[in-house]
Amino acid sequence: MDSSKRKNPYQKRNTMTLDIQKIRQDFPILHQQVYGKPWVYFDNGASGQKPLVVIDAISDYYKGYHSNVHRGVHFMSQKATDAFESARKTVQKFLNAEHEYEIIWTTGTTEGINLVASTFGRKFIGKGDEIIISTMEHHANIVPWQMLCEEKGAILKVIPINEAGELDFEAYKNLVTERTKIVSLVYVSNALGTINPVKEVIDYAHQFDIPVLIDGAQASPHLAVDVQALDIDFYVVSGHKICGPTGIGVLYGKEKYLREMPPYKGGGEMIATVTFEKTTYADLPFKFEAGTPDIANVIGLQAAVNYMNEISFQSIQAYENELLEYGTKRLAEIDEMRFIGTAKHKASLISFLIGNIHPYDAGTILDKMGIAVRTGHHCTQPLMQRFGIPGTVRASFAFYNTFEEIDRLVEGVKKVKMMFG
């Protein structure tokens, strides 16, 4: 299809304008060549790129007011503390948490899940108790629960999925028993793009007073999340997925659980008093934030959240849905194309196989054409086993991608197919 005749993707929607070319100017990394070709970045599911405002926020902190937070009475320490805690308020509003102190800084989604598995598990889970996850979970939402089950003698139960990659809700209901202590579910599958019906999952679990943890790593770049409206008990986010820095993340937890859970790590900052005989712990959120925090990246995360809010998630989702629809349609025109994950409700991610071509081979050739995709099992080996495949090629789109880049991907896939034909 002639791109000049295609519907203008930058048109006004819902009284808001998404100017993609202007947005792309905010991302220096997008304007370079790889192997002599303009670079196309379709690996957003692994990590989002960083706008200048995020890079500048981190740089400004180190250049202008670097100091440790909370413990200093001098000017720079207070300035750093104000910026650091301002970021907590920003994330509180971003997730619509009821209280600031329900926002806990972590290194990312993985640590957030480990924190809950370790501390909630230590407090509330015993021998014979049950934990429910799903077939489509990332390893980060499998392994910590397995470790807890091995330690406690608990039982891990898995919700099956259908061929489209959708949760079997009736099977989920049948898995819930009086021994179920927590449900831990991905919001958006990183390997399939499936958007799970988390509200329905949560509502059913809450009928039996079972808390639910939602892995929001892949949801946060695409969907506005209201933890109070969804009634989420725990929600975990990685900053680098939402145009923020690597190594910083967020755990949201309801106050009633956080107050009952023991500390995750011991050290400075998380204490009230220490003697050789007894330590008492600080109040929330500091009970879970031992040691000097990642101040610069917290400030960078605030800049990222503000940046995406300014664009608006309504506009982001609308545009990314168009990218998904267009990409799916164009790739489906290629013979022997097999899509893995065809759920009715999806984020802007396409996992596919091309005939019998190994994903790694396809990804390597696409890379030589200047197109970055992710290949392999995407840290979801049990999911790949469910479909009987070694992995997939995954093209994941963000709001700074274009229809023309998808055209490049389609031509690249055609070349891969021709080379192996």
Radius of gyration: 22 Å
Main sheet: strand order: 4-10-9-8-7-5-6
Low-confidence parts lasting 5 or more residues at pLDDT below 50? 1-16
How far the N terminus sits from the C terminus, by CA atoms, comes to: 24 Å
* CATH architecture classification name of the largest domain: 3-Layer(aba) Sandwich
Strand content bin: 15-25%
**Molecular shape:** globular
Question: DSSP helix count?
Answer: 14
CATH level-4 homologous superfamily of the largest domain: Type I PLP-dependent aspartate aminotransferase-like (Major domain)
| Number of beta-strand segments | 17
Average pLDDT works out at: 95
Number of structurally distinct domains? 2
Work out the helicity level. Answer: 25-40%
Q: What is the CATH level 1 assignment of the largest domain? A: Alpha Beta
Major pleated sheet: 7 strands, mixed
Structural class: alpha/beta
For this structure, the CATH topology of the largest domain is Aspartate Aminotransferase, domain 2
Question: Quick gist of this model?
Answer:
By secondary structure, the protein is of the alpha/beta class.
Task: Describe this entry's structure for a reader.
The protein has helices spanning 20-24, 52-65, 75-95, 109-124, 143-152, 169-175, 198-206, 227-230, 255-258, 295-311, 313-332, 359-368, 381-387, 403-419; strands spanning 33-34, 37-38, 40-41, 103-106, 130-134, 155-159, 180-186, 212-215, 234-238, 249-253, 271-274, 279-281, 337-339, 349-354, 371-372, 374-376, 392-396. It has 421 residues and is of the alpha/beta class. Strand 11 (271-274) and strand 12 form a beta hairpin. The chain is globular.
